[in-house]
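Aim 2, interim progress: modelling of the NAP-bound target.
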Amino acid sequence: MSMFLVTGATGKVGREAVGRLLALGHPVRALSRTPGEAGLPRGAEVVAGSPADPDSLKAAFDGVSAALVVLSGDVGGQAAHVAAAARAAGTSRLVLLSSGGVEHPLPHGIAREHRAAEVVIEECGVPWTFLRPGPFHANTSWWASTVRESGAVRCWIGNNPGAPIDEYDIASAAVVALTENGHRGKSYLLTGPQTLTSQEQARILGEVLGRELEFSVAPPEEVVEVFTRITGDRAAAESDVAALRSPEVPWARPTSAVRDLTGREPRPYRQWAVENAALFG
Ligand SMILES: NC(=O)c1ccc[n+]([C@@H]2O[C@H](COP(=O)([O-])OP(=O)(O)OC[C@H]3O[C@@H](n4cnc5c(N)ncnc54)[C@H](OP(=O)(O)O)[C@@H]3O)[C@@H](O)[C@H]2O)c1
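Predicted structure of the complex, ligand included:
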């Protein structure tokens, strides 16, 4: 039976994908830097390693027919390690969690990194599929501490309309691309079902929590400081903030990609808010 590998398996998308593959009866190997703390379902074979560690990938790819590649940190560099390990192992399918930013008209750091990862995978000779989601529903968990403390939402990405997506739908699309034919060499711009501004997401979250939340948009300079602290790269932070706050985002309107791949509508933000209400106190 084919073995499926999931990198980033303890994260938002990877965890959902592991669960979905197991539910469909597939053997799954899950990569984590700390397998003892992974908290993944018992059916998964959890192995130690990281896309940043080529030796761990050599072992992780042994006998793997298809892999969901979720990268965090040095996305381009990690993709090169993954591509080499997959090619050496004779893996026949790589599904990369890329970014909708790749299709953005403004060049920016997130797009550059993810496109670099795509190019490495395109050139490695293993058949590929790229998933390019817009912002995740789970990004609103960044609001949790201020909502708990003062009922306030401070928004970093401006207030332009977009169609954010649930991690469950990204994982479901990934599992289709991993397990079914017809997706080789294709890229999918994945969105949720509704166009919403951040303020509308805050309103929905407030309705679910039963309280009105105060909404404000952080000025770009404040967000550039935050991003620069995380990545250490001010130029990339400036370009990322400009792209994320532009009205030209590729995920401005819903696409049909989740429905086309999975045969059902993507989940609305309200469902995420209901399922994750405990985060907000
Ligand atoms: N958030 C968005 O709106 C958005 C939109 C489009 C694309 N994306 C892309 O989606 C990907 C992230 O997916 P996700 O949110 O599901 O992942 P995630 O939850 O952020 O992380 C996945 C796992 O990666 C491992 N990890 C974290 N930092 C790492 C590092 N520096 N080096 C090696 N491993 C590390 C961790 O697992 P262990 O600790 O168990 O090893 C973590 O659980 C990124 O490539 C991101 O650019 C995000």
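The pocket of NAP is lined by residues 8, 10-14, 32-34, 38, 50, 52, 70-73, 75, 97, 99-100, 133, 135-136, 139 (CB under 6 Å). The longest helix spans residues 75-89.
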